[in-house]
Amino acid sequence: MKAMKKYMCLLGIMMIAGISFAQNSLGILVKDSSNNQPVPNASVEIKNEGRTTKSDGTVIFSNLPEGNYSVTISAIGFFSKSFFVSLPDTATHIILLTRKNAVLQDVTVIATTRGNQHIENSPLKVEVLGKEEMDEENGIRPANIVSIIGDISGIQIQQSSATSGNANVRIQGLDGRYTQILRDGMPLFEGFSGNFGVLTIPPLDLKQIELVKGSASTLYGGGAIGGLVNLISKRPTMKGEHILTFNQTTLKESDANAYLSKRYKHIGYSFFTGYAHQNFSDVNKDTLTDVPKLNTFIIHPRLFLYPSESTTIIVGYTGTFEKRMGGDVLVMNGKQNSLHQYFEKNKTKRNTGEFIVESNLSTRLKGTIKASLSDFDRTVQTNSHFFHGKEWNYYTEASALLTGDKVDWVG
Question: What is the pTM of this model?
Answer without folding.
Answer: 0.69
